[in-house]
Each structure stands twice: as structure tokens, then as C-alpha cells.
Amino acid sequence: MSGRKLPVADGPTTRRHTAALLRRHSRPLIGITVLHTIAALAGLVGPLLVGRLVDQIVAGASLAVVDQAALIFVTAIVLQSVLVRFAQRKARVYGETMFAELREDFVDAVTALPLSTVESAGTGDLVGRTTNDVDRVQFAVRFGVPRVLVAIITIVATLVAAFIIAPQVTVVMVLTAPIVVIVSRWYLARATPGYQRESAAYAALNGTITESVEGARTIDALALEQTRRDRLRADLREAFEAERYTLRLRTVLTPGLDTPFMLAPIILLLWGAFLISHGWTTVGDVTAIVLYMRMIIGPIWELVFWLDEIQVAMTSLGRLFGVRLVEPDRTTSGVEPTDEVVRTEAVRYAYREGHDVLHGIDLDLRPGERLAVVGPSGAGKSTLGRMIAGIHPPTGGAATVGGVPLVDLPLEDLRGHVALVTQEHHVFVGTLADNLRLADVTASDEALLGALDAVAARTWVDSLPDGIETEVGSGGYQLSPAQAQQVALARLVLLDPHTLILDEATSLLDPRAARELETSLGAVLTGRTVVAIAHRLHTAHDADRVAVVDGGRISEIGPHAELVSAGGDYAALWHSWQSE
Length: 580
Ligand code: ATP
Prior knowledge:
By secondary structure, the protein is α/β, with parallel strands linked by helices. The chain has helices at residues 11-24, 26-58, 63-111, 115-121, 123-165, 167-170, 177-214, 216-221, 225-277, 283-295, 297-322, 381-388, 411-417, 432-437, 445-454, 458-462, 481-495, 511-525, 537-542, 560-566, 569-578; strands spanning 342-352, 355-364, 370-374, 396-401, 404-405, 418-421, 430-431, 471-472, 499-503, 529-533, 545-550, 553-558. The chain starts with 10 loop residues before the first helix and ends with a helix. Adenosine-5'-triphosphate binds next to α12. Its main location: membrane.
């Protein structure tokens, strides 16, 4: 593992991608804004009516005025509720649509990642991005974006209404605005790192506790109790410090915002009384403005909460967009192979720069031959297999089919030429047919059954409750490792490549089952070039040629009998295997 991390998009790149996403979805935004604005305006009717009522009653109006005001009030509330219902629905659909696009783009980017990048970055980072980061973004996009929108519209509409109704009263609010802005900015600048530190501290603490519980016997046996206790204490201290820090932020934020919110009505009432005494405004206007000011407290709190969440989500978005920044490891040249001959010329490969594990391998595969690759563990057999399968571009030299470097072919074409089967077989959640159609989406049911036949899997498939339509994978019918391997091989039959690389493909089966599968595979393998990377030497014995890989080089190559009589490495390997 070279440990190269997946990239993280920087602030400007993340903002650019986010802005593009918002622009692509700007149409529904207009509808939502219009609906919420009308709803907010309907919500402003109440305080306005109360204000007017106060003035009319002071002027000695009759009870009929109150009835009329009550009727309008109720109508406005009903209208607001209906509008909010539709606006909320639209906003949730909007958030959902945007999140769906984000998720699809992310899945596209992840599935397009070069395998070498995934391997060198480790799957942990990618899993973290697909789970934690997607969750955080989901929360902010689904709920946050619509709520922020509503909060901003409500605040702006209320302030504008207040200024229109009685600017001379509202202007005094300017005094409290700076406190709200300063406190919010102070908090938002510290909240994200603060809460991130807190989650990291709890993750570490959980890790330590889980490890200690799971490894209790080892800890006991090696007398590591004190070390574990010290570690736990350090983790607890960090969690405590992190909690204390965020608590301090909240102890500044809460009074920091509550003070201007509480001061506002006092200032308004004092200022209003002064204006009323000079006849510059009415009791009703002051009442309306005080009620408006109380109405924006909720949205301001909500705005601060969501801006904080959105800041955290932006960090996660940077990690999601970062996956798109990985350069592809191959560029399609468009040149077509002239024949089906696979060849490697002076192929070198290094997982880590400067540490070659293949040192210039020349190999001509003869069409239709069966080549067994044998050698000690770590010699580079699997790496050579991956070069021949075009999984990684070689660091030096070239692996070609029909004169075209394998990595210059589009992936779909490449798999029609050369395919690799390893011992890791993943069963995807879905039907057995879905699992097989990964190789060829257009394959008919007959073709699927034919492929299963070829790998001797029909007996057990036919006994499944729904045959090839049976749900398999997690939550469905559990395939045994041997069955999963047969499914992988059946996929290969569907791909129909002229060259196959079997990297210990039958090693999970017990020797008898392996031989049976290999025998049934025989029919499928006929006419194809097969490179079998093998531990069991009987595979080598049955092959047309054997290549011995040692220290990243082919030390011997030739037919079994020839190598045995030459008395070299292979002969020694063969004799020792036979005497086992
Ligand atoms: P085995 O029979 O044990 O599977 P092998 O002959 O197939 O061994 P390779 O798996 O090709 O050997 O490994 C060749 C060398 O490359 C080894 O030293 C191994 O440690 C290293 N190597 C293999 N895969 C990676 C990887 N993903 N990252 C870094 N080094 C690797």
C-alpha cells in the first residue's frame, strides 16, 4: 500500500460545484421562493391587524371591527397554512432531487475511479465518504437548504414590512443588528472545527473501548491493563476538552443572541413611547413592530443552526467532490486491435514509486494455449496477471492485444478481449440474474442458464426457490463461497473474452470441487487463451506451457515435461510437490 489519499476539493472548487448544482436546479427554487414569500406575507397580516385594532379601539371603534379583524386574521392563517404546506412539499422535493443528483454523480465518480487509486487509498477512506459524508450532506441538503430558504424569506419579508409600516419605529432595530451579526459570525467561525473535534474525539473513545472489550483476553494475557487505562483516560480527557469547548461556544451564543432579542422590545417600547408622545407614530404601529420583531427570533435561531450544519456539510461536500478530481489512469486511443494476440514487452510495475515488483517481463501468449504461472508467494504472479488483464497501466514497457496497449481500450471493449477472475467474489444484493447480467446487460435468460450450465452450477440454481430470479446477497439467499465463485465464472462465460486470466480462481473450492469445476470449465476454456495463476501444480501439469515467476522475472518457461527434464527451479518444485 502506498497510502495515497483520495483528494479533497478545496473551498473554491467546492463552492463552484455547489453553485453549478444550485444553478441546474434554479427553476423550482423560483416557485418555492414565490410560495414562501406569499406565505410569509400572509403571516404578517396578524400583527398588522392587531396594530390597526389597537388604534381603532383607542379611537373608540365598535365590536364589529374586532369581528371583521378576527375574520381576516383567520383567513390569513388558513391561507398561510395551505401555502406553507405546498411550499414545504415543493422544498422537500427540491432538496431530495438535488441530493439524488449529488448521490448519483458521486456513485458515477466512485465507480469510475481507477482500481489502482482505490487500492492505494484504501477502502476505508472511500467507505467513510460514501457513508458519513453522504449522511452529513444529505441532512443539510434535504432539510437545511429548504429551511434556510424559509428563514431568510421570513426575516427579509418581516423586516421589509416593518420598515414600510413604520420606518421611524423600526429604524431603532439597527442598534441590535450588529450584536446579532457579530455573535453569529464569532460562533460560526469556531463551531465547525469545534464539533468536528468533538466527533473525532468520540470516535477515538469508542474505538478504544471497543478494542479493549474485544481484545480483553489479549490485554489480560499481556498485562496491558495500565496502558489501556491510560489510553482511555487520554481519550476521555480529549472528549471532555472538546465538549467543554463547544459548550463554551454555546454559552456565548445563547446569551449573545438572547440579549438583543430581549433588549429589542424594550428599546422599541421606549423609542415608540417617545415617538407616540410627539405624535410621530401610533400605539398600533408600535404594537405591530414589536410583534414582528418577536416573529423573527425563531427564524434567526434556525438560520444560525443551519448555517453551522451547512458549514460542516461543505467540508463533507469537499470530500465527495474530491473523488471527481482523480485523474483517469487510461486514455482511450480509439485504435482497434488487429488480432487476438496478447503480449507483454519489458513490462515493469511498481505499486510504490521506485519499488518495482516486476522487472521487465516479456511474454507472448499463443492464441488458444493454456499457460500456467507458478512461483513462490510474493513473486509477482498476481501482479503479472493484472498487467495482462489491463487492470493497471504498467509503469514501464507495454501489455498489448493485437498491437494496442490494453489500457488504451475502452473498459467495455477490454473486457471482451481479456478478463480476470480472482478469488475475491462479491455477491451483489439483487437477483442471481442481476448478478450475472453485470457482465452483459442484454443477456437472455437462456444465455444466463447456459453460462451457469458451463460452470456446473445448474443443479443448485435449479433447486433455488425462484431459480435465477432468487434474491441473493445480504438479506437474500446466502451463496456459499464456492457458489459465488461459480457465479463469477459464469459471468466470465457471458463476457466471452478470447483471453482469460484465472488468478487462483478455483482455490476456494475443496480440491475435488475445484477439479470438477475445472473439468466443466474445460469446455468453456477451449479455444480461448488461458493464463492460470496456480498454487496447485496439477494445473501446471495439464497446461501447454508453464511460466515460473521468481522475484518479478520469468525464470523459466516451457512445457511441463521439458522443464521437468531440464532440472531447474520448476523441476525442484514439481518433485517436492509430488512427494508431499
Ligand atoms: P501470492 O502467491 O502470495 O499471491 P504473487 O506471486 O501473486 O503472490 P503479488 O501478489 O503479485 O505476488 O505481489 C508481488 C509483490 O507486490 C509482493 O511483494 C507484494 O507485497 C507486492 N504487492 C502486491 N499487491 C500490492 C499492493 N496492492 N500494494 C503494494 N504492494 C503490493
